Amino acid sequence: MAETPASNLDAAVGLTAESLSPGRLAFRRFLTHRAAVVSVGILVLLILWVLLSPLTARYGVNEQVFDISQGPNQNLPPASFAWFGTDIIGRDVYSRVLYGVRVSLIIGLASAVFSLALGSLIGAVAGLKGGLFDDVVMRVTDVFLAFPFLVALLVVRNMFGAVGWVTFLVGEPSSVRFMVFLFAVFGWMGVARVLRAQVMSLKEREFVEAARALGASNARIIMRHLLPNSIGPMLVALSLGVVGAIVSEATLSLFGYGPDPGTGATSLGLMVAGSKSAVRAGYWWLALYPFAALLVITLCVSFIGDGLRDAFDPKHGGAR
Amino acid sequence: MLRYTLRRAVWLLPTLLLVTFLVYVALRLGTDPVASYRRTNIRASKKKIDQYIAANGLYSGAFGYIRGYFKWLWGFVTLDWPRSIKGSREVWPHLKDALANSLRLGLVASFIGILVGNALGVLAALRPGRLRDTLVNSSALVGLAVPPFVSALLLQLFFAVYWQKWFGYALFPVSGVYPAGHQGFDLFLMLKHMALPVVVVSIQSIAVYSRYMRASLLDVLNSEYMRTARAKGISERRVLVHHALRNALIPVTTLAFLDVGAVVGGLIITEGLFEYPGMGRFFLVAYSNGDFPELMPWMVLIIGSVVVFNLLADIAYAKLDPRIRLG
Amino acid sequence: MRNIRKSTKFAGGLLGSVLLLAACGGGSDSASDTTAAGGGSGSGESAMTITYDIADEAQWEDATPITAADFQCTFDAAMNTPGSISTSGYDKITSVEAGDSDKQVVVKFKELYAPYKNLFSGLLKKAAVADCKDISGDFGTTFNYSGAEWKMDSWSADQVVFLPNENYWGPRKVGEGVKKLVMVPRAETQITDLKAGSVDFIYPQFYAGITDELADPNVKTVLNYGGDYEALYMNLGVDGKNMTADGEKTRPFADKAFREAFYKSIDLDALFKQIYIPIASDGTLLTCGPIIPGMYCPEGIFGNKYDQDAADELMEDAGYEKNGEGLWAKDGVAPKIEWVINTGNIRRESTQAFLIPLLKKAGFNVVAYNCDADCYFQKRLPGMDYDLAMYISTAPPDPAYLVGGFSSDQVPTPENDNKGGNFQGWMNETATEALKNSDREIDEAKRAELIKSAIVEMDKDYILIPLFQFPKSGAYRTDRVDNVEGELNNNAAFNDTYQWKDLDGDGQIVIGAEQWPGCLNPVTECASSSWYLWTVAQQLMPGAFRTTNDGKYVVTELLKSDPKVETD
User: Which residues, at least 6 apart from B118, have a Cβ–Cβ distance to it below 8 Å?
Assistant: First the structure.
């Protein structure tokens, strides 16, 4: 049963057993992970829906569904003119969820990519060099890893926010750019650890020793041999990073340190965090739709991460 | 083993010094303690400000940071702690209460998380791919994706607001350590007040541990040497208990050590949502006041705990896992 | 947790100072009045003398009498304690001495001081502190005395417990059956706690939707209009520029035509309907200026002046023309208007989200320039680092706070050590003259005219846009407490706890506090929040005058009669 969709697809793209490289093998295994495949489908649809927001959104991010002179427009329940209801100043929740998804996805993906890059570099170099350098880097990583995330974010946010050239480079502390920067600075440790372990085990293997014997430099070994062989764990780390950044952004928003709503920007985290009193007051639509969108994104990304891990490391998965 | 422990322990002090120094610099840059003091004590004379600077070692200039750090360090280890900038209060009594409250909450929540999480993880790993596994795994993912403030809000609405509406009393309180007006120690009331925050934290840690345990156990179960054990005809039950679980617990133990080490930092979000006066609240208030004399001891406690428990985790890992090469 | 940041700017520097110190006014907490010396007469002579006769039976919690020495101590502490938040009023005093007996206090002023009723509104007990000239080290763990109906039993980060003061002599004795008054910090959970029955009373800052949140058969919400008002303030800069040396930025609101056109481009009625009607459906647009309706409120000024054509004409006359983006520009530059609010305040964020697109359409390049409450109220405002600001002021009934907030010598400049509460940089000689004189005018009616004339100047100069007299609100459980509605509109909020009734028979009244004072000292920063006044000071400290629910001052049981005021 589990085999059917995968084999159909194989036939469709003309794959045969003989031509399977490790990557293709992993791809095939990924396709057997139903939850992950469905998640990819949902995410792709969602991204398309958001990319096409000029067509799919019904109102602007700060546009009211109708003017206050035509009657009260605040906190209206779902209706034909506003599918997900309206918010505290009469804006369309459906359209704002779309804009929020966009911002949250950007924050999630960008943070994950940057922390992946930073973490891989640190982990790979530490693993290759070993010795004292490795010791120091790993102790620092430990502390970064175990330090309360929010404390570190707040302190560093203030510190960098006060430094002119940092804000010049990455924007004001309430900007999306600054947030991506923060999450990257605090998101690399997991990746670094995984990659270091990977490198440690790989570097004993024949093909790396062979490359070294042929006089290849460290950089070359990292680029040509170690990174491609670590692609599996890195993809998994990427998916974890996306979820982590999206949830962190929601948490920062809860404390009023998220994107600045006064600028008209919005994110799913901001909408969920801002709906606490709305839930108590009974305006459920203000919480439900952004929260559902947040949940769908994080779950999909997690399932894809699971699928990727099983695909690259079949020991974990078992049959599905 | 002893050599390894010593080698790792040697790193303890330098790490502590280095990290506290970095935090010292970060706090001085980020909160500007002298400006905060002047903001809080606007009529303070030059003399008072100089006293404050001297007591805290807030000298200016790059060298001033180093000199100031050691000045602060000396005061800290000789227990000559400067007083808070707001209200000139002693720091330790307040910090001690916050620490006790946080430890209580954090340790109970970690205990439940580790116990239940691991049990679920084992259940899932024994039947990979079956309904049980899918159920545990998906609920864990949902648990991780739901921000704590959402679960806290729903729990509060259900157990307090609606319970009060339906039955005339609230099943669990939503705030504080004790009911208002209560003085003295009372275990039952204390546990009742901890119930909801513990659940909120446990949801997250159960999710983490169940996923971790499942992965770890699958790793072991699918490994070569388990196959050998089975092939040798050792009973499945014996294999599981004596070999698989023992080995699978190794990485989980490490994680648990790290978690317990971080408990000292308090649970900023949960403490806020339940008005629980722990380390997280202490930090937030001190931070928003820019109260340097309160922030530094707080930071040292956290860093100390994190570093020490990291060491313990590594040692435990080395002791439990015979494959580790000790150098 | 966003509630933590949902703070207002307490105009009066705040209410704590009203209690012990003079009504200092728009954040003039940092203003040491530099003009004081000029108006006074020579040393030794006095322009005004006030004699207070302390009630014979007035005594502290340990049955020792309250005497002139305690008045002296209060004066010394306010003037000399390093962290004292305000000296205004006290800095006009030359001496505080005992009169015929130690139950009589003679206070001499170097110049006339009209708002004297704000002085000595919270007395220190001399025997309770080590050194009256520096009490910054006292009150570390508890508030160790009382001259009012309650006394403090314990205080922690978790709760404050009061017991009836059995040695209290006055008419405000705690009612039968009430054994404890407890206040607990409940910033995040106050509404849930009230509905769950774990607190009896809360005093939340109002926002849209809160009445729906509070809907419950056992909860009653009371809405009153007190001394709070919200407004939009424009920053004129110092000489039209940034105050600090680092920026060359010219402040667009330095130009009066620009201010007027800006004012006339906002439809205040629409704004009001959008933002404030959901909060209080019976509310009306505030038209008084930086003050609430009453004897100091001039008629027929401010209000909605929306007139897009007039605004456009003003801008064109001032040499502006619309650029490619439809924004008003002069010499190719469309001046950026930086609008600051504290992040996390949903109402203000909504106001920005509503107004900014409309103002852009009208041609004004308004951008949000927000930061958290500490940064906003302690850095941006005092540093005059903004163009447009929106905040609530919690004003005492006496208008003396206007002097510190709007006189031209109160603009923070290097000359006055950057201290002063006029954060708008408004320099108007007519208004300053009137405000200064109002402080020295003892006649109530004449004083009101002076205040009004200064406010009329604010209207003519278009320096602020008053929006809303903000409601004060209390909510309580009708099955737990009763008789709580008496003083909810008071500047000093629930200061009548002695007459609250306990209905559920547990012998205690529990108040959930939205903010929590981190410390107890009555003259330092600790006292700068109104929640300090409500949760600590007014329950314990006796004073000369007390404010009433309708914004008047009445003499308290501490004095035999109204103090005798003599002028030369």
Answer: B209, B210, B213, B249, B252
- Segment B290-313 shows an average pLDDT of 88
pLDDT of residue B322: 61
* B47 & B131 share domain: no
Q: Which of B15, B262, B309 sits opposite A139 (nearest CB)?
A: B15
Q: Which residues is A143 bridged to in the sheet?
A: none
Q: What is the count of structural domains for chain C?
A: 2
State whether C328 and C407 are in the same domain.
yes
Question: How would DSSP label each residue in B285-305?
Answer: HHHHHT-HHHHHHHHHHHHHH
d(CA C404, CA C393): 13
- Domain hosting residue A299, numbered range: 23-65+95-316
d(CA C265, CA C524): 43
Residues near C316 by beta carbon (within 8 Å), at least 6 away in sequence: none
Q: What is the pLDDT of residues A46-85, one digit of tens each?
A: 999 998 888 888 888 888 888 888 888 888 899 999 899 9
- C494 — phi, psi (to 5°)? -70, 75
Going by their DSSP bridges, the two strands C336-340 and C388-394 should be labelled as parallel
Which residue shows structure tokens 């706690």? C193
SS (H, E, C) C237-304: CECCECCCCCCCCECHHHCHHHHHHHHHCCCHHHHHHHHHCCCCCCCCECCCCCCCCCCCCCCCCCCC
C453, C470, C487 - which closes a domain: C470
Among residues C478, C81, C437, C452, the alpha carbon closest in space to that of C295 is found at C452
Q: Are residues C395 and C331 in the same domain?
A: yes
State which of B42, B77, B112 marks the end of a domain. B77
**Residue B86: inside a domain, yes or no?**
no
Distance from the Cα of C376 to chain A's closest Cα (Å) equals: 13
Q: What is the pLDDT of residue C4?
A: 33
C432 & C523 share domain: no
Same domain, C197 and C234: no
Is B87 within a domain? no
Sorted by sequence, the CB contacts under 8 Å of residue C85 that are 6+ apart come out as B42, B43, C13, C14, C16, C17, C21, C29, C523, C524, C525, C527, C528
Residues B58 and B31 in one domain: yes
**φ, ψ for residue A314, nearest 5 deg:** -60, -15
Residues of chain B found within 8 Å of residue A147, distances taken between Cβ atoms: 262, 265, 302-303, 306
Q: Does C410 touch chain B (CB under 8 A)?
A: no
Q: What is the pTM of this model?
A: 0.84
Rg (Cα) of chain A, in Å, rounded? Answer: 23
Interface predicted TM-score (ipTM) over 0.95:
no
- Considering only CB atoms, C1 lies closest to which of A89, A255, A261, namely A255
Residues A152-180: tens digit of each pLDDT: 877 877 777 767 777 777 777 778 888 88
Q: Which B residues 110-149 touch C at CB under 8 Å?
A: none
The pLDDT-based confidence of B95 (bands split at 50, 70, 90) is very high
Would an 8 Å CB–CB cutoff place A262 in contact with chain C?
A: yes
